Automatic annotation (TrEMBL):
InterPro entries recorded: Ion_tolerance_CutA (IPR004323), N-reg_PII-like_a/b (IPR011322), N-reg_PII/ATP_PRibTrfase_C (IPR015867)
UniProt similarity note: Belongs to the CutA family.
Name of this protein: Divalent ion tolerance protein CutA
GO biological process: response to metal ion
Lineage: Bacteria, Pseudomonadati, Nitrospinota/Tectimicrobiota group, Candidatus Tectimicrobiota, Candidatus Entotheonellia
One Pfam assignment: CutA1
N-terminal signal peptide: none
Gene Ontology molecular functions: copper ion binding
PANTHER family xref list: DIVALENT CATION TOLERANCE CUTA-RELATED, FI09726P
Amino acid sequence: MTYRVVMSTIDNRDQAEQFARVLPESRLVACVNIMGPMMSLYHWQDAIARDEEYLLLMKTVATEEQALIERIQELHPYEVPEVIVLPVLDGAPSYLSWIDASVRQQER
């Protein structure tokens, strides 16, 4: 099995918590970590924007990657939401097995 960490940011704690509930319930991720608030500075509409945001770290399996990306885009209020996928090169076997057990395509 191949694993992924998917990152996204959002500017509202309540919405971050909504993601952290909805995505594991739908079995697309094993868990969502919410980090923040943090400060983000970025290019937007020919200017440098500055916003307080929360970082979401989501653990999943590669076979659910595309479905997760689509679901994030459906739920996300941003015009251009951050969705970055990082490969997991290795990990504790017991943790990776837990991800397998938590993310099951047939459960949705």
